[in-house]
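Hi all, long-time lurker, first post. I run a small reading group and we've been trying to get comfortable going from sequence to structure in the token notation. Rather than ask abstract questions, I figured I'd post a concrete chain and ask someone more experienced to write out its structure so we can walk through it together at our next meeting. Sequence below, copied exactly:
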Amino acid sequence: MFRSLRFRVPALFLVGVVVSGLIAAVIALRLFQGYVQSRLTSELRRDAVGLTELYQEQANKANGAAPGFAAPKLEKATGARLYFVGESPFPGSTPLRVLPRTYLPNWQSNKQLTFEFTPPGLHRRYVGVANPLRLSAGKHQGLQFGDLVVAKPKTELNRTLLTLVDRLAIAFIGGIVTAGLLAWYLSRRITKPVLALSDAADAVARGQYDVDIPEVRSRDEIGHLAERFREMAARLAEAEQLERNFLMSVSHELRTPLTAIRGHVDALREGVADDPELRAASLDVIAAESARLERLVGDVLDLAKLDAHRFTVLNEEVDMGRLCEQAYGAFAEEARRRSIEYRQRIDAAPTIVSDGDRVLQIISNLLSNAFRWTPDGGTVDLELGAENGTVSVAVDDSGPGIPASEQDRIFRPFWSQDHTGTGLGLAIAHELAVALGGRIELESQLGRGSRFELVLPVGR
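-- Answer (accepted) --
Happy to help. Here is the structure in token form:
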């Protein structure tokens, strides 16, 4: 369960949400703490200025006596504690709590000061703002005689932070619940097709290629994966079918010449063919069928070497004109026998650097394919041309043509348009052309024949 995507996706999503939420909460608390502290200090400074003006106004009205400053009422109204630091010029006691000057050594700086302290007899820390007090009459007019301190406990700041923490906790829990539901929903949407693809992959691994691939309508990576997986399963099913067809075709192709060879060998061994002419005919049949077997085995070996990239080619000068004439002559008798109009056109006779035997093999395979599909009385053309540093050998036939949907398949091994034959000729020709640095191009129309063109570079 814990290794399943259904668990890991929402779990990772929630972990990310929790970590992000905690980081955001810490940053928010730090920012809010600074904001609250700044706001508290601003309020204390504003109160200190106002209360200082009120205190000095009361002192002026008292004509040298202690001012009638209603400190308790003001403390109740502002929620702050009021202190006096300095040397009072008034006779009698000051109406304010006196704070020892050791708490504010620089009280004579004639500036508004902000500091933290623990008042005498209390155990809580306070934030205080000290504002200078000056005389406004007499010979010492304008001189600072003390500071009025307005202070509030820091616990108010903590209380505000605790309120924020409570609200953040509620929002955090709500966010986790919402994120959990969203993660569960998203994980279901994401993992459902992935799990379906996983089950399909297990089926394919067991050799069941006709599996139902889920339809993923999204155009994201999962949709792309489903589409490619569907194509892969189809290609594997096709490859399996081609392999069966190939095995049946090869079995037939091998059995036919072997049967003929065995029959003639038995006839020769038993003395049935005592006539020299019959014996020569039997030996000709054995030789022809043996050559046929050799070609079939050679095709299979060539394909295996090409697939394993263990195929080597020679670099030699090849007279393309002579080579095309050689390939053309090999099919002249078949063309005459089947009344096929067989034509050759050589527009150039270039010499290229390549593997002559392999080039001849490619052209022969193309001609063999053309004669296979051309009906009796049809036409087959062989053309040789050269331009722009390349040589082209084209084979045209008047066969049935190849549908557009099958033009890419005909170069695959073991694939045959009519599901007969080995399906190796065009596959080997294509791979050999690539190995020689060239290519085979195909143009075909249904009912109007096909044109295969081998294009090779002049030099390699």
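A couple of things your group might point at:
The mean pLDDT is 78.
The two ends are 59 Å apart (CA to CA).
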